[in-house]
Amino acid sequence: MTFNRSRRELCTAAAAFGLFPAFGAASAADTLPMKMVLLGTAGGPRPRKTRSAPAQAILVGDRTYVVDCGDGVARQMVLADIPLDSLRGVFITHQHSDHTADYGNLLLLAWTAGLRTRVDCRGPRPLERMTKLFFQMNAADIHTRIKDEGRTPLEPLIHVRDVAEPGVVFEDDRVRVTAAIVDHPPVVPSFAYRFDSAGRSVVVSGDTRYSKNLVALAHGADVLVHEVMLIEGVDRLARNVPNAQNLKESILTHHTAAADVGRVATEAGVGKVVLSHFVPAEDPLITEQTWRDAVATHYSGPIVVGTDLMSFEVTR
To answer: So what's the pLDDT on residue 127?
Structure first.
């Protein structure tokens, strides 16, 4: 109970100092469940057998807000029993293909599944231009389906804004979304996102090395979904590729070692850590307990080793 009180105090203090805005005491979300679904938990662009590409869904009642759109995100939503036409927001953390490969496809496929309501999209440049080019690329199909199937035009439903600075990037009567800039060189800017809804909060780290900005954003959060790396597995990951040395150096400079995930969680005072975006994504020598033990060196709270399609309620 002491730990929970501490998190509430951290949350109040952070709001007071402008680290993130306090969500209203009364809102349409007060009586609605908030759920987190890990749609894909692999790190890196190469398709894997056991984990899908990075994507998360935050559900508040019957509305879905997706963070990142790795390969296969629409199918993962279907497998998770999330209606595609419940999509209301898409938030891209950074411009790496494992996070953006199916961004346009998610919008198009949600529309073919019956989407008729507004979707707000946020992310770093050139998200607005990407969206326009995607619609141009698929103009023949979209036009045909509008004319032949009587569908609502797609483009007017999609409202996109490039994000360049930290702060509140989206708000409706269910959720407030706040962005912080994290460290993922050379991809700049890269963002983490915090979702606040009726006193409950989820933070998604995006890709980053240890980040004080992330600590500030995650202060008092109920759930922190954090990318994670085991350095001893990176050598095995890079061993059999022609660009091994460059790949290894790149990975080590912009991802978070498991022990540092624990540091972030402790400094932020979060209620639970959920591990995702695993680097390496597949390694027979690394078990769930290996991941858990590495994070626990600096964090004594609950640690969840994420798997594709895992879901859980977010509670105060």
So the answer is: 98
